[in-house]
Structure formats: C-alpha cells, structure tokens
Write a structure and sequence with these properties.
heterodimer; A: 235 residues; mainly beta; lipopolysaccharide transport protein A fold; 2 domains; 13-stranded antiparallel beta sheet; B: mainly beta; elongated
Chain lengths: 235, 196
C-alpha cells in the first residue's frame, strides 16, 4: 500500500515537473522590459526605462543604460531603442548549442520583423559550438532573427576572425559581410583581405562556407584577385 | 477589676478594627466621562462634492458613503470614496478606495486600501466618447495621494498598471493624468500579455 502511495506521489511530482517545464517556453516567449525607473507616456505611446534596464524574450536578452519602447496603435511594442556604454545583447539558440554575444553603443530592435540593428563600435561573437565560432568588429551590424540568424555587417573595414578546430584561424578585412547561420556561408565584399597561416588573398569578393570549409573567389572582370602563399622551407 | 479589663480590651479592639476598616475601604472613584469615539464636528452619509470651473463645467466629483469632518486636523475621513474627473486629454477617470482622508484646504485626497484607478468610464452622467479597446487602462495600489487641483497622483506603495496588451509593476508612482504620463520608480517590470 505504501509502495503504491509512493509510486503515485512520484508520478505526481514528475508530472508537475513536466508541466512546469512545458509552461516555461510559453512564458519566456513574451517580451518583458525592466528598469530601475520608468516614464510611461500613454498619449505618445512611448515607454522609457533607465538604470539596469533590460529586455528579455525567448532566448534573447539585451541590457542597456536606457531603453525606449514605442508602441503601435494596437498597443503592442513595435520598436525598442537601446543606448549604453555599451549595450550588451545575448542570443541563445533554441537548442542552446549556438549563441551570439554582441556589444555596441546603440541598438534598435524591431519586434514585429524580429530585426536588430547595432551601430557604433559593434563587437560580435557568434558561437556555433565550442570548437567553431567567429569574432566580428564592425561599424554596423544588422541581424534578422527569423528562423535562423542572417547577419549583414559593414565597416571601414570590418574585422573578422573565424576559428575552427583543426584549422588555422581565418582573419579577414572587408567593407561588408553577409552571414547565413543555416548554411554557415560567409560572403565578404569590398577590398577583402583574407589571411591564414599559409595564404594571403586579396579580392573584391570572397565566399567561405564553414561547413564545407570551401573558399571561393568569384570572377570579377574589373578587379584581379591575388593570392600569396608562404611555403615553409624543408629542413 | 477583671471585668473592667475585659471591657477595655474589647472596646480597644473594636476601636482598632473600626479605624482600620476606614483606611481599608476602597476609594469610591467618580465615574469618568467616556472618550468620545471621534472629535468630528459633523458628518454626512452618501455625500457628493462637486467642483465646477468658472465656465460652469464640472471639473471633478468626489463621492463617499460617509464623510466625517475633524476640527483639529481640518480634514475629513471618507468611507468608500470615489473620485471622478476628466483629464485634459479628454479621458474620463474613476478612482475608488476603501477609505480616505480629504483636506479641503489644499484639495489633497489620501486614499487607502484597495485603491483602483480606471479610465474608460462614463463620467458626469453622460457616456464618454467611444473608447477603443487599446485605450483601457487600470491602475491598482494600496495607497494613493491624489491632488484635485492639478489631476496628479503619487504612491510610494507597489503599483500595478494594466493595459489590454501589457502589465507593468513598480515600487512607487507619480502620475500626471492631464499629460497621460506616469513616472515609475523601483523594480519597474513591463510584461506583454498574450492575446486571449
């Protein structure tokens, strides 16, 4: 009888745990904004937050000194502006394998389209796994979060470092970079200078796929590509 | 001789017992007048106070189930007070609480217990303008100071503000109803409410 009671109790405990866990993602998917103080302007539909201000939603958290949230006519949050020294953004993927850490002076989050634009002193680390990640320093980064991350960054120049286990780090300078998280494709354009331990490449455009580890230089009739390879001397 | 001694002894004992009984007897205390339950000089039941502008327009209206005026404080305690007013944004408001105190000199009302503020209500006996669902706004707190002179309010207790799409809580609030602006202090949290 006691055993039966214990089994029933354990089942109930397990069920309540499952229920609590299943309720969590739904709660997390809602947008929440925090701050030490705030000014809500219902006439202008603008909410302002100061001091340890933060926004969190479904694996995304953004910390800033000041947050300004603008509402649409329906009262829903339409656009959130962040400023700070710096603004810190952390994005964790749903499977928790990948993550993105970004810092910048200012950041704009368009909630409906799930787009983020970071400007001024942008520093970004995109981690695919522990042994594969890239660091980016740019003047501006535009992130589209729908399904997977699509990133467009610009700089004069921007600096990119790709780290992959078993391979030399890839260092690159360019004016623009496109990155697709789903395909792991990098597209660097504008005065691209890419270097590894062995090669140095100069081109207008370079494509690199981190999954296949294939590097492509598309043909450009207006600009020649240049590759310098350092060959180690045999002893 | 013996008999005289006995009589003397008995009379002495009697005298001692009588004198003691005089001192032991409890003092009779004059009944003190009972403390009055209040020092109110007047009170009203189902009271309604209305404030009009020079143009004749009704500015605000304060209703209560009971009003009791205190001479010493020159203020009045209110039971189930309700304040109705129209902000400069042409939004009608109803503030209600379990009890309150009004100071008629400086037009300050301190509301206490289950304070609730709601927009979107017909005020002054006529239907307010058609209000959209998004404009619904309700505020609750345990205490609120409302200034009738400029339609402003403040609370140093926890405040909860609810709109159809969002729920905001904070440790304190300062509100300017004419500007539709609310300043919140301490642990401000705004959460989106899911569509139901």
């Amino acid at each position: 009888m006691n055993k039966l009671f214990c089994a029933l109790l354990l089942t109930l405990v397990a069920l309540s745990g499952d229920l609590a866990l299943s309720a969590e993602p739904a709660e997390n998917s809602k947008l929440s904004i925090r701050g030490d103080r705030s000014k809500l302007d219902f006439a202008g539909q603008i909410y302002r937050y100061w001091g340890n201000a933060s926004v969190s939603q479904a694996g995304l958290s953004i910390h800033a000194d000041k947050i300004v949230a603008r509402k649409n006519e329906g009262g829903q949050t339409q656009q959130i502006s962040f400023s700070g020294a710096p603004v810190k953004m952390e994005q964790t993927s749903t499977d928790k394998a990948g993550s993105m850490l970004l810092t910048a002076k200012t950041l704009e989050y368009r909630v409906e389209s799930d787009e983020i634009t970071a400007t001024t002193e942008v520093s970004l680390t995109q981690k695919q796994s522990n042994d594969q990640y890239f660091n980016l320093e740019a003047a501006q980064a535009h992130i589209l979060r729908k399904n997977s991350i699509n990133l467009r960054a610009t700089g004069t120049p921007l600096k990119l470092v790709i780290i992959q286990t078993g391979r030399d780090p890839i260092n690159a300078l360019a004016e623009q970079m496109l990155f697709n998280e789903a395909t792991q494709q990098f597209e660097l354009t504008g005065g691209v200078q890419l270097s590894t331990a062995r090669e140095k490449i100069k081109a207008h455009k370079i494509l690199y796929n981190a999954n296949t580890q294939i590097l492509q230089i598309p043909e450009n009739k207006e600009q020649q590509s240049e590759m310098t390879q350092t060959i180690e001397e045999q002893p | 001789m013996k008999r005289r001694n006995i009589i003397f002894l008995i009379s002495s004992l009697l005298a001692v017992s009588l004198s003691l009984s005089y001192w032991i007897e409890p003092l009779t205390v004059e009944p003190q007048p009972l403390a009055r339950p209040s020092t109110a000089d007047y009170f009203f039941k189902q009271v309604s106070m209305k404030q009009f502008a020079q143009t004749g327009e009704l500015i605000n209206r304060l209703d209560a189930a009971q009003l009791e005026h205190f001479v010493a404080q020159d203020s009045a305690s209110l039971l189930l007070p309700q304040i109705r007013f129209r902000s400069k944004q042409q939004k009608d408001w109803l503030i209600s609480a379990k009890k309150g105190i009004v100071n008629l000199d400086n037009e300050l009302v301190v509301l206490d217990e289950e304070v609730s503020l709601e927009s979107r209500l017909p005020v002054f006996g006529k239907e307010s303008e058609q209000q959209t669902e998004q404009e619904k706004l309700s505020i609750s707190s345990s205490q609120l100071r409302f200034d009738l002179s400029d339609n402003s309010a403040s609370s140093n207790k926890q405040v909860q503000i609810k709109t159809p799409t969002q729920f905001t809580s904070a440790d304190a609030m300062s509100a300017h109803f004419d500007l539709a602006q609310f300043e919140l202090l301490g642990n401000v949290v705004t959460r989106e409410i899911s569509d139901e």
